[in-house]
Amino acid sequence: MLLRFIGNRVWQALPVVLIVAVGVFFLLEMAEGDAVDAYFATTGAGDAGLAAQLREQYGLADSIGTRFLTYMTRLATLDLGYSVAFSRPVTEVIASRLPVTLMLMGTSILVSGSLGVLLGGIASWRRGRPTDAGITVSALVFNAMPGFWLGLLGIILFAVKLRWLPLGGIGTIGADLSGLESLLDTVRHLVLPVMTLAITYLALYVRLMRAAMNEAADSGWALAARARGLPESKIVLRHMARPALLPVVTMLGLKAGAMLGGSVVIETVFAIPGLGRLSYEAVTQRDLPLLAAILLAGTLVVVIVNILIDLFYRKLDPRIADTTG
Amino acid sequence: MKGAEIVPLMRLSGLTVRYSAHRGIVDAVCGVDLDLMPGRVLSVIGESGSGKSTVLLALAGLLPSRARVSGSLLMDGGNGNLLADPSAHSNVTGRTVGMIFQNPGASLNPVLTVGDLIDEVVRVHRGLSKKEVRAETLSLMSRVGIGDAKSRAAAYPHQLSGGLKQRIAIAAALAGRPRLILADEPTTALDATVQAQILDLLLDLVDREKLGLLFVTHDIGVAGSISNEIAVMFNGRVVECGKAGDVTLAPKHSHTVALAAGALPLDLTVEQPKTSISALDDTAKTDNNREQYLKSATTPEPQGKDTQVQQAAKKTELVLSGITRVFKTGARKAVAADGVNLTVRSGETVALVGESGSGKTTLARIAIGLDRPDSGTVILDGQPLIDERGHMDRVTRSRVQMVFQDPLASFTPHRSIGKSIEVPLKIASDLTSRARRDRVLELLESVGLEKDHANRYPTALSGGQLQRAAIARALATDPDLLICDEPVASLDVSVRSQVLDLLTKLQNERGLGILFVSHDLGVVQWIADRTVVLYLGRVMEEGQGKAMWQTARHPYTRSLAAANPSATVPWRERPSVEQAKGEAAGSFAIPSGCRFHPRCRMAIAQCETTEPSLEQLEKGHFVACLRSGEQLDLG
């Protein structure tokens, strides 16, 4: 039953991937200029003959129909092609950048989700008191700030003034660390970008969790649990918090795509060599194969995250498994 | 009743519960005294807002902290006043006192298996090892009559039927070995046959284990049937308290009289013409000062309907034939109706009766064109209600109107009552806006509301007033037929009687045909000219008049009647042979042959294979039972 569920979800994701693939092609087609124009723009020189030769070489001279067909058949055979901008196979370029983004996005989702659950739970527990107001208001303030600005503030405070954390990047260059030290180094580099990304989305989870906990506190089963003489800690954790997690988890899945989008900005601010920065580079260089692959990779990441979240959801709420089969 | 040697399980005196509200201090409960002995049942009855649930929560120590509680509560021979000592009180909760609630679905945590849920309570109260905990849970489950406890323990609440869920809630309440059970309307949300089984279980616990049962209910029939003593609450006070028989047979306080008068018990003995049921005392109503209107306006003899005259004037006939409706969710199919024939004519009231899942609401929706059958036809005066393209024209639509169960949910919250009643007029008539407003006021008057109500919003009206407004809205287009889906199920008995009287009065005035969906047999017996009994989407029996329930032949109809508690018949003396076994299989799994056979006490081998057809026994009396021809002696 579980395998069939996963199979179903992958099957449902296919049209999403297809639509994205077609969309990417035509969006880039609508943009002015191609990879050769972009190449000449950066080198600053070139002649018509070379341009024509390059276009011939990269298959850019064909008609739009032919190019679309080539593009789609390549995708169908999972041949992602050759990056014009990096002069390397696209898969290689992506493989070098994807793990960083996954790490950034994954930890951000975990941090904002768990922090949101914790703070929202506390806010609901202290409903109507200063703690509640403090949590709700500050989460909203952070939510109102643009991520890049929050990131810049973080850099100025923690990296420049206090010098607690590194400025940017994903590891100390040339430090040649290993084992635990290397891990710690990565963590130190991740703290600011992860917190920046997490905090911008935090308000959403805080408010959701707070509302769900308030509702759970008034629910029949919380009252019944009290009537059975259970200690307060059990009532709050098992009979209120567990059912209250459901809407938060749903929202985590829905926001996974937005977080991937947000990481483009964050990666640029913190100079992190991830998928986000790569897509910026691919757009500026009109590198169609690379950009298509990035978007496909992003779609896949979002689809996979959502499948994982749905699996977690089924674990949390037994009613779902029975109705969706 | 205050035994000298036996210590009362619970002695409550002078309980007062106070809330500070915006308008000042509100006394929810005022000076309530209650005593309960082991092995006895005390019922607290009252309408909504009488304070009966507040008393129960105060006994369990579960009132919110903003409530100010005073009085004295002694429990199980202890000599400390629990109301004055919250920590001692919380030690008692779940141990000396177990509590069960109205809606078993809401009182069980949906994300825990029922076994884990009971385990947790056992663990907290009983210091047992891990293995012993589960063993104790399983023994508790068998104690409340759950067969196959081991596999049931792994189920989640949503996988269990309503009756099983309530049994689980009872098992969880018993886990701390309480001596006193507090029950807050524990059977109100259950079907009649399941209610009977849960009442059996509770009384059995009281008899065998000498537990005390404090039973809070709005249903004087249940209270009179199961209790030793009854306390009647009104406006936060106990207005009458005494032996169950005395309270139900010879009520002293006017409010008890009103409750008993509005109760409409199912009458299986003598046939006697009933007069207007809302012969209510002024004290019975707190929220509606218009009851005088109805007293004067109600026709004294609902039986004396002059249907002949009405039919001569305007004869309308809605014929549903061979209606089948199957709902598909994924691979599962729920059969809501399976070849049902039904006719409603001008001036008559046809009742659709059945337990939840019997398909009565689906039929009502089909009868008004809100839903379309998979097969079968709905014909209004020779014309299909809905044409082939699924369209229903304005005139037809205005001729059949509907009144829903929950009046508050059936009004748009931000639209005034007058505006809501005006909507159907805008659609179905060409009246000017001034004429429409006049018509709205006329309609309000005809249902016993005042002009002023037109400008109010739904939340500002009481349940009874809102249901009147809903009836006014249904009458706006001057329909020939009214479809009423449980129109009085959510109303207090005193208000309920008035709404039923209103429906009868309007029927007499306008010659309305009424399709009346209800699970309440007493109400149905009072109002119906013809009654159709449904079970899992199929008609089991159809009969005429009030005598239908005395002459019922189908075992299912008889089990419904037997499950209906009567205030004058003690529950333990009730004949149990007619009780249906178990619970309905659910419309996803219709049994073979006669669909009632797994629950039927009379089933023979043939019932498992042959589906009986609806046969006429005598004029107007149809039964679908293979054994209907036999002379039955069910005691």
Spatial sequence of strands, sheet with the most strands of chain B = 15-16-17-12-18-19-21-20
CATH architecture of the largest domain in chain B: 3-Layer(aba) Sandwich
Mean pLDDT over all positions of chain A: 84
Radius of gyration of chain B: 26 Å
Number of strands of chain B: 21
What is the terminal-to-terminal distance of chain B? 35 Å
Q: At the first level of CATH, what is the class of the domain at 103-284 in chain A?
A: Mainly Alpha
Estimate percent helicity of chain A. Answer: over 70%
Chart the SSEs and their pairings.
The complex is a heterodimer of chains A (325) and B (635).
Chain A: H1 2-30, H2 35-43, H3 48-57, H4 64-76, H5 90-125, H6 130-144, H7 147-161, H8 179-217, H9 220-227, H10 232-269, H11 275-284, H12 288-316, H13 318-324
Helix pairs in contact in A: 1-4, 1-12, 5-6, 5-8, 5-10, 5-12, 6-8, 7-8, 7-10, 8-10, 9-10, 10-11, 10-12, 11-12, 12-13
Chain B: E1 10-21, E2 24-36, E3 41-45, H1 52-60, E4 68-75, H2 86-92, E5 97-100, H3 114-126, H4 130-143, H5 149-152, H6 162-174, E6 180-184, H7 192-209, E7 212-217, H8 220-226, E8 229-234, E9 237-243, H9 244-249, H10 254-262, H11 291-297, H12 307-313, E10 317-329, E11 332-345, E12 349-353, H13 360-367, E13 375-380, E14 383-384, H14 394-399, E15 400-403, H15 417-428, H16 433-446, H17 463-475, E16 481-485, H18 493-510, E17 513-518, H19 521-527, E18 530-535, E19 538-544, H20 555-563, E20 615-618, E21 621-623
Parallel strand pairs in B: 3-7, 3-8, 5-6, 6-7, 12-17, 12-18, 15-16, 16-17
Antiparallel strand pairs in B: 1-2, 1-4, 8-9, 10-11, 10-13, 13-14, 18-19, 19-21, 20-21
Helix pairs in contact in B: 3-4, 3-6, 4-6, 6-7, 7-20, 10-18, 15-16, 15-17, 16-17, 17-18
